[in-house]
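Subject: Interface between my chains keeps coming out wrong

I've been trying for a while to get a sensible model of this assembly. When I model each chain on its own everything looks fine, but I need the whole thing in one frame so I can look at the contacts. Pasting all components below, labels as-is. Any help appreciated, I'm running out of ideas.
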Amino acid sequence: MGSSPALRLQPSSCIERPQIAFTDVSLTLGGKTIVENINLDVKPGEFLCIIGASGCGKTTALRLAAALYQPTSGTVTFDGEAMQVPRRDIAIVFQDYGKALLPWRTAAGNVSLALETIGVASSQRASRIEELLKKVGLPGHAGKYPAEMSGGMQQRLQIARCLAQEPKALLMDEPFGALDAMTRQGLQDEVLSLVAASGATVIFVTHDLEEAIYLGDRVIGLLPHPGRIGIELKIDLPRPRDQLTTRENPEFLRLRRELFDFIKASEA
Amino acid sequence: MIPERIKAFLLPIGALVALELWARAVHLQSDSLAPPSAIAAALVEAFKDGSILVATRDTLTSAFAGLLVGGAVGLAFGIALGIFHIFDRLMEVTIEAIRPIPSIALLPIALIALGFGYRMEILIVAFACVWPILILSRAAVSAIEPRLIEVSRALRLSPPDRVRKIIIPAALPRIFLAFRLAAGIALIVAVTVEIAINPIGLGAAIMTAQQALRPDLMLAYLLWIGLVGYLLNTGLVIAQRHLFGRAALVGDAA
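Reply #2:
Try treating it as a single job with all components included. I did that and got this:
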């Protein structure tokens, strides 16, 4: 992998400034290098998926993008500004929705937390909450507590809370990893249409190769120990994507093969 | 079929009846025991002349004031220690050195400093209440789901908002449990101080009855203290269910 600069997506024709840019980012925690020399540009509105074997630093990369971690060396910028602290226009969807929601607040109260924080006047919150819950398919559940909702509903609620921040970028950390296959496919399509409607940039971490190809404009694969970019694939599948036809597309199958071989080689 | 709730009363009622019959059969003459009917009569008499109400007021005033003072100190330190690990390290030895001192051992010092009366009793109750609340609220704060702290960081909540909207509500069910525990301790310590030396409240009333050779009155006060403690705890349990019906689903619902 001596070609890491070549892996940096920088189409010469592209005059658009990247929204999220990693420049030579490394992170060392407790003497252990978790990720090393990551160079990555994410364009505004792009849907980038990150895949890799467990322990390869996918989640760490996402946390660096959220500024929940600061790099040991290198810089992470958002809209050209270096990030010292998390930003409210970047929302993060955690995998463990059950832990990320406030159990003492109702669905409406959980969405309200984000609205309160970004300073939405209390008179406008109720209508915004209703609108957001409707958007994620939870109309009529405003008064329920997270403990009274299924896993899929809880993850929808967390997404609604993130959308309430009106984020420019949405960072998703294996958001559907704990859900059953049917719920997962439904949520994949919902996320695609929500993102298409909002125009947000997305970084989506997953260990499911098919999910990455199905959702992304681009997929990068990380190699483990230390985490670094090992493969980058542009996904030229037509949008809107369809659970049947997209997954049967020969290009989809070719990409799946390529990623599968990459993961196998990276684990060897 | 006897309803379940009534079954629980069969044993104590049976015991009382047996005790009454036995006391009458042997024509009980004792400085420490009295037939249930005499105890009941003494209780009614104490209510009629109002002495039991005054004593209850004095004991509960001291117990609650001590609980509030000790609880406030314990809560403030507990939350601060739970949030700031450096502070926790700094205080560790100090706290572990002071905590094992039995609160009642402060009696001689408190008596010299404050004399008889409410203030001395409140101080000793407060000392006893600080520890359970400090230790349980510290544990409650440090047991808060780290993901919630991360959510508050990602949303960039201000430090006061972080305490108000995340830390306190997340720790509150356990903190309330600590207060329930401390309320029981407050009552025990208040009565102990009164029995040992302070001439007010229910504890002093028991001592007076004992010295007046009135076992019926003494046992009436004893029963009444048990009843007060039971009502106190029941009230707090009901309040807990009412306040944290939903939130109690997380953490220990005990």
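Reply #3:
Confirming on my end. Chain B has one domain: 53-212+223-246.
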